[in-house]
Write a structure and sequence with these properties.
The complex is a heterodimer.
Chain A: E1 5-11, E2 16-22, E3 26-33, H1 41-53, E4 60-66, E5 79-80, H2 83-94, E6 100-104, E7 109-115, E8 118-124, H3 133-143, H4 150-154, H5 168-180, H6 185-207, E9 213-216, H7 223-233, E10 237-238, H8 246-260
Helix pairs in contact in A: 2-8, 3-5, 3-6, 6-7
Chain B: H1 7-28, E1 33-36, H2 42-46, E2 51-53, H3 55-64, H4 68-77, H5 86-95, E3 98-102, E4 147-151, H6 152-156, H7 162-170, E5 184-188, H8 194-206, E6 210-213, H9 225-246, H10 252-274, H11 285-297, H12 302-321, E7 332-337, H13 345-354, E8 357-362, H14 375-383, H15 391-404, E9 409-415, H16 419-423, H17 425-436, E10 440-445, H18 455-477
Parallel strand pairs in B: 1-2, 1-5, 5-6, 7-8, 7-9, 9-10
Antiparallel strand pairs in B: 3-4
Classes of the chains: A alpha/beta, B alpha/beta.
Chain lengths: ~260, ~475
């Protein structure tokens, strides 16, 4: 029987990700471009994944788009679904025992309740950037460090510094004020991680956190946030090296399901 | 083809139109016109034949007519914080004399059309006509002048003449932008605590009497006798104030008739609400929100009772004939929690329609249908409003409606205008899922201020809810 190739495309607010699956099991290609909806990112990510896998669009049995910019692929994708279901699906593929998914994206925080590999309920943040990936981007810029280094730097902290968790703009002012007082950057970064974790933990507790807990999205690469969240929730949090691709992976899995119908 | 409107709906529209027309006429004749909070005992005002307008309904109408933002901003310019309820801000701006108006050239007195307004022009085949600039051509018949803010006190100060007349004419013509200024205010804070300061401000701004009935938050499901005594005493005080205001004696017969009308209206209203239990439902919960204008503004009028009874007959026929006002097949049924985002109704409706989601339960609407037997019962009834009851009562109301109306999920509006309501929603959501086994999705918005709503965020949450309901149904089927 011929191999069924499916493509999942996750167009977020800050990045575009693609995952190509063979027979809904094997990842045969993936791509990530660090710009998202409304940019050249989605097309570049699609071109890249097709090229890396040596495939064409026509060879895809089903293409499914997800993420904030999912509607922009109308005509290209065969179907679109919310990133909520796709993250739950992708996380279940990587961690079959998962019951709670925490996804911190560029502008959204999602807490997903998962049963039998599918999302059955969820909570999302309100209209506020606090606790999102954008919050960390803003803070990294003020601190003049690479956002990817926040985790390592925060781990060197020796003293707790409290940062407001209520507003990105005011938290930025607080960070500037701490810098003016010569507070160690590592301590400030640790405070920022605690702030993000506090916001996310509050949301997670609304849904009711159940083991296994899996964190997805780019922020899951930040060990400082993961550790702070583990402390605040009192639970082990599982992450994957594929964390940024979980939404696209879920989309490719749903695409496979659709292709087999 | 124009959508056919049922006799009941037409009758309900006429009732509200008449209430507004009567108030405008009364004002023109020099009679007193009051403004009232939505759950002030209307039976008291009816006993004195007073014409009363309802700022909450007015604000909803102004917001639905897309003038919420300019009025909210006007209130903010007066010093009211943008954290205050959007209805309150609109009403306070209106009370201060601010109006949304159509812009005109003071030299020519011609309206200045906003080129971005209007619907796309379509050809004879219904296809949108595209202009040379590649954009849809606007139908000139649907284009409107720019909206500007005017002040009635400034207009009054102008010398008599064509310019002054034009300013009066330029005020938007829909009824909610044309309600008379108040001569007194009737405030009952059972519907929301914000009312107290809102009405106090109106009374001070307009230098008019405030008649206040205080109904404190009740942290028990039961309304105790001491609570009833507290409210009964305030009814007596309000009657005394109304006697002083009108120079008339309290007319017990008129009061009893008003109570009978209110009970008849409420009973018919509750029976109309119950039609949402049918599967598929003969109409949508959003229709109920529209009919709330009647239950609030005309509850003590016999015409309202008759119109709801007529609507009931329409619905009975709809059930027999299998028709519905919902313009799509009902795939999922949800409870919509909270007040709609009036300025964004099309955005609110679009993803629901796209996913076959019908709103078959709303808690706000039946909360206005209460029936009582005597004065103590009336005091007890007014003690129970959505924001004056404890969480156990609130959950019980909602879960009852969810069960009766067979919903698959709950869509919760975290209303920036309504902190008391939205505050306990997180816990309610948790209980709905635990007790009913249905998914819930919350979204940020506002009942009147469009700046607090984001369509893209809302769409994702609705889609997520639909996917969760789908999964839930599959799990139940095994």
């Amino acid at each position: 029987m011929a191999t069924i190739y499916t493509l999942g495309i996750d167009i977020g607010s800050t990045a575009s990700k693609c995952v190509m699956l063979a027979d809904g099991k094997e990842i045969v290609g993936k791509s990530l471009v660090a710009v998202g909806a409304g940019t050249s990112g989605p097309q570049r990510a699609i071109d890249e994944v097709l090229k890396s896998a040596g495939k064409t669009k026509e060879e895809m049995s089903f293409i499914l788009a997800t993420g904030y910019g999912r509607n922009s692929l109308e005509g290209f994708a065969d179907h679109q679904m919310s990133e909520l279901s796709c993250h739950a699906k992708g996380a279940s593929f990587l961690f079959p025992e998962v019951r709670t998914v925490i996804d911190i994206g560029g502008q959204d925080v999602k807490i997903l309740r998962v049963e039998n590999g599918a999302m059955t309920n969820f909570q999302m943040n309100d209209k506020c950037a606090a606790g999102t990936g954008r919050f960390l981007d803003v803070m990294a810029r003020v601190l003049e460090v690479d956002v990817n280094d926040l985790g390592t730097l925060g781990a060197k902290s020796t003293k707790y510094v409290g940062i407001s968790s209520t507003c990105t703009v005011f938290a930025e002012s607080e960070v500037i004020s701490q810098l003016a007082q010569d507070t160690d950057k590592c301590d400030i970064i640790n405070g920022i991680h605690q702030s993000v974790a506090g916001r996310v933990a509050g949301l997670a507790n609304r849904v009711g956190v159940q083991d296994q807990v899996v964190m997805t999205g780019g922020v899951a690469q930040n060990i400082g946030v993961v550790k702070a969240l583990e402390d605040q929730l009192g639970r082990k949090i599982h992450t994957s090296p594929l964390t940024q691709y979980v939404g696209a992976l879920g989309a490719a899995l749903f695409a496979y399901k659709k292709a087999c119908k | 083809m124009a959508k056919e409107v049922s006799p009941g709906v037409l009758a309900l529209r006429k009732v509200v139109d008449d209430v507004h027309a009567d108030a405008r006429k009364a004002k023109a004749e020099g009679k007193l016109v009051g403004w009232s909070s939505s759950k002030f005992p209307c039976e008291l005002a009816a006993a004195f034949d007073l014409d009363v307008m309802y700022p909450e309904n007015q604000a909803a109408g102004i917001a639905a007519n897309r003038d919420g933002e300019i009025m909210c901003q006007a209130a903010e310019d007066l010093g009211f914080d943008n954290d205050i309820c959007g209805y309150a801000r609109i009403s306070l701006a209106y009370a201060a004399g601010k109006r949304a108006a159509r812009k005109f050239d003071p030299e020519t007195l011609e309206y200045i059309i906003d080129p971005n307004s209007g619907k796309p022009l379509k050809d004879e085949n219904g296809k949108v006509i595209i202009g040379e600039d590649g954009k849809p051509v606007k139908d000139p018949k649907t284009q409107q002048p720019y909206t500007v803010l005017v002040d009635i006190h400034e207009i009054e100060a102008l010398p008599d003449g064509a310019l002054k007349d034009k300013y009066w004419e330029s005020i938007k013509p829909y009824r909610q932008m044309r309600i008379p200024q108040p001569d007194f205010v009737l405030c009952c804070n059972n519907i929301c605590n914000c009312m107290t300061k809102w009405y106090e401000n109106i009374a001070r701004m307009c230098n008019i009497p405030l008649i206040m009935i205080d109904i404190p938050y009740n942290n028990t499901v039961e309304v105790h006798d001491s609570n009833v005594a507290y409210v009964r005493a305030q009814f007596d005080a309000a009657i005394k104030q109304l006697e002083e205001l009108t120079g008339k004696k309290f007319d017990e017969k008129k009061f009893e008739q008003a109570c009978a009308n209110a009970n008849r209206t409420a009973s018919a209203w509750l029976r109309v609400c119950d039609y949402l239990q049918y599967k598929p439902a003969p109409y949508s919960g959003f229709d109920l929100f529209n009919h709330m204008a009647d239950i609030v503004t005309a509850r003590a009028k016999v015409q309202a009772a008759e119109a709801f009874e007529l609507l009931e007959k329409d619905l009975e026929i709809a059930i027999k004939e299998g028709t519905t006002t919902t313009p799509f097949p009902e795939k999922y049924r949800v409870m919509f929690e909270g007040i709609p985002c009036w300025p964004k109704l099309p955005d609110l409706f679009k993803p629901l329609k796209a996913n076959g989601v019908n709103v078959t339960a709303v808690v706000y609407a039946p909360a206005f249908g209460f029936v009582y037997e005597d004065l103590d019962g009336m005091a007890r009834a007014y003690y129970k409003a959505p924001n004056s009851v404890c969480i156990e009562q609130g959950v019980d109301w909602r879960e009852g409606i969810c069960r009766d109306n067979k919903v698959d999920g709950v869509l919760v509006h975290y209303n920036r205008s309504c902190k008391p309501w939205s505050g306990y929603m997180a816990e309610m959501q948790r209980r709905f899922t635990a007790d009913l086994g249905i998914p819930c999705a919350g979204f940020d918005g506002d009942q009147a201020d469009p700046r607090n709503f984001n369509a893209a965020q809302y769409e994702t949450r609705v889609q997520g809810l639909v996917e969760a309901m789908e999964q839930n149904a599959m799990n139940k089927e095994g």
